[in-house]
């Protein structure tokens, strides 16, 4: 892949490079936090947690390889790594439920981004084919297992009142969203600085890319807000058709078989 692998555009490339650099440590954190609550889960949820772990380990491996390419292009990613370490350390020495709440929020983020990547080809238009294939494969699997962290959260908090569960998950989502946007913006601007691109015009171009055209951040806003609705569940946003699974380790990700009457 070339240095600016997405449409030869440094802004677009920095947007995805900054996300990818966070994935290996982030997905390791997701695995640990979900696996912590496997005990006592239903057989269905326990099996889905195991499948979730396998998929996240594979994502980590592939993004480590992708991030090696980023480093080989001369980018220093130490700042991004420090930001990730700092953000994930916020739940150190806290009850494991705190890490699960963060994971549940971030899995909602990854599911939203995954939906947009597949539903709107414009996001990866002009990308290097290897990079495009990686991002679409990762997106499909994020949609496939998007309910697992939330189902684990519901299992882990089954003795809580609905009000407490809603308050904690909402508070954590707000904090996590702030950390996510600030951290990723710092990372993107840091990478662009290494391309000699700085100043208000570059900030404006990055803002337009995120919120204007193609506008990933703008387009996921409504689904982000749905997290705060009473009775929320990731699969209430039914986008299984995007992955077209014939079979899956995740029962909720399988589209029901159509009967002759349904197709008439």
Give a written overview of the molecule:
By secondary structure, the protein is mainly α. The chain has one domain: Ferritin, core subunit, four-helix bundle (Ferritin), CATH 1.20.1260.10. Helices cover 66% and strands 0% of the residues. The protein is built from eleven helices and no strands. It has helices at residues 10-35, 43-72, 78-88, 96-119, 129-144, 148-156, 162-193, 200-211, 216-219, 221-226, 260-263. Helix 4 runs antiparallel to helix 6. The longest helix has 32 residues, at 162-193. It is globular, with a radius of gyration of 19 Å. The chain starts with 9 loop residues before the first helix and ends with a helix. The model is unreliable at 258-264 (pLDDT under 50).
Average pLDDT, all residues: 92
Gyration radius over CA: 19 Å
Coarse shape: globular
CATH architecture: Up-down Bundle
- Supply the CATH class: Mainly Alpha
Under CATH, the homologous superfamily reads: Ferritin, core subunit, four-helix bundle
End-to-end CA span: 48 Å
The strand count comes to 0
**Would you tell me which CATH topology applies?**
Ferritin
Low-confidence runs of at least 5 consecutive residues: 258-264
Q: Quick one: biggest sheet?
A: none
Quote the beta fraction.
under 5%
Estimated structural class: mainly alpha
Keywords: Hydrolase
InterPro entries: UCP07580
Organism: Sphingomonas mucosissima
Protein name: Putative metal-dependent hydrolase
Features:
Ferritin; disordered C terminus; 11 helices; mainly alpha; 264 residues
SSE layout:
Layout: H1 10-35, H2 43-72, H3 78-88, H4 96-119, H5 129-144, H6 148-156, H7 162-193, H8 200-211, H9 216-219, H10 221-226, H11 260-263
Helix pairs in contact: 1-2, 1-3, 1-4, 1-7, 2-5, 2-6, 3-7, 4-5, 4-6, 4-7
């Amino acid at each position: 892949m070339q240095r600016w692998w997405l449409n030869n555009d440094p802004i677009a490339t920095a947007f995805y490079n900054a996300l990818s650099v966070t994935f290996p440590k982030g997905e390791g954190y997701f695995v640990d936090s979900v696996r912590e609550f496997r005990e006592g889960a239903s057989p269905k949820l326990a099996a889905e947690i195991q499948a979730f772990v396998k998929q996240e380990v594979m994502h980590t491996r592939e993004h480590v390889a992708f991030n090696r390419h980023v480093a080989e292009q001369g980018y220093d990613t130490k700042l991004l790594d420090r930001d990730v370490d700092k953000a994930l350390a916020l739940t150190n020495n806290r009850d494991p439920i705190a890490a699960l709440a963060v994971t549940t929020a971030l899995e909602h983020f990854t599911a939203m981004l995954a939906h947009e990547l597949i539903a709107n080809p414009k996001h990866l238009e002009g990308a290097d084919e290897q990079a495009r294939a990686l991002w679409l494969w990762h997106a499909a699997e994020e949609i496939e297992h998007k309910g697992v962290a939330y189902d684990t959260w519901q299992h882990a908090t089954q003795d809580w009142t609905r009000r407490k569960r809603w308050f904690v998950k909402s508070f954590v989502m707000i904090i996590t969203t702030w950390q996510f946007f600030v951290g990723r913006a710092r990372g993107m601007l840091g990478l662009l600085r290494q391309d000699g691109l700085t100043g208000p015009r570059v900030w404006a171009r990055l803002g337009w890319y995120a919120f204007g055209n193609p506008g990933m951040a703008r387009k996921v806003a409504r689904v982000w807000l749905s997290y705060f609705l009473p009775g929320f569940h990731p699969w209430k946003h039914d986008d299984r058709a995007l992955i077209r699974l014939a079979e899956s380790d995740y029962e909720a990700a399988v589209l029901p078989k159509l009967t002759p009457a349904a197709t008439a």
